[in-house]
Amino acid sequence: MIAITGATGQLGRLVLAQLLKTVPADQLVAVVRDSSKAANFAERGVSVRVAAYGDRAALAKAFEGVERVLLISSNELGQRVAQHVSAIEAAKDAGVKQLAYTSVLRADTSTLSVAKEHLETEQALIASGLPYVLLRNGWYTENYLRSLPGVLANGALVGCAGSGRIASAACQDYAEAAAVVLTAPLESGRIYELAGDDAFSLADLAAEISRQTGKQIPYQDLSEPAYVELLLKVGMPQVYAELIADSDRGAAAGDLFDDSRTLSTLIDRPTTPIAETIKMALAR
């Protein structure tokens, strides 16, 4: 059996849907905090088990009879390492044969602030002795499109990434990669650096939004402190304002660029172009 943690989240839901195309539903486990959010998977025959990140006992029970686990990283900044370690220990308690973890692109060299917790999790996983695979995911294109309504309303895309190149991919691309790894022959110690085939700057992103909407949307580049201040003014919590600005700073430093095409090789197709993801976002 294969278990997916965070199975009702943005990535987890897509991974489960992808697995259901080739894996019998009774061989899949959705590990969630709220079972009501997984009702659609339960109706299809997926086993829904309740366990929160950080609850080692509940996670060990959720992993009973499971051969492989996909540990999707928690979104609780500052608490993730402890939560992930609980999941790793629970997987070991349950006799899991492989744990795949969704990390961040080049976690061992990245200057992104989020990389620290990912790298510490990777180190804990390696030290555990549990067979592992690291899925070092690059940025999701969708990260830039959540603010699309505001961009269109304000007539500008704002950031602090300079001319940094971003090799992002659609969340669906990363989900398919996870499904491939989870259904491939068991392996351990494999690290996948995953990113989109094509890179773009935020000025390129603004130009594509302009092209598709028929509106002139320029890219306005700010300093990192000025961008944080702007995000705070529009009501964003400090921790997330700093995180978003730091990701742009990292983009300027090259942390979000990769040209290995490992992701498209793994999923056996080109990654989703930004133009297509923008088109889908505008249609919603």
TrEMBL record:
<dbReference type="InterPro" id="IPR008030">
    <property type="entry name" value="NmrA-like"/>
</dbReference>
<dbReference type="Pfam" id="PF05368">
    <property type="entry name" value="NmrA"/>
</dbReference>
<dbReference type="InterPro" id="IPR052718">
    <property type="entry name" value="NmrA-type_oxidoreductase"/>
</dbReference>
<protein>
    <submittedName>
        <fullName>SDR family oxidoreductase</fullName>
    </submittedName>
</protein>
<feature type="domain" description="NmrA-like">
    <location>
        <begin position="2"/>
        <end position="247"/>
    </location>
</feature>
<dbReference type="InterPro" id="IPR036291">
    <property type="entry name" value="NAD(P)-bd_dom_sf"/>
</dbReference>
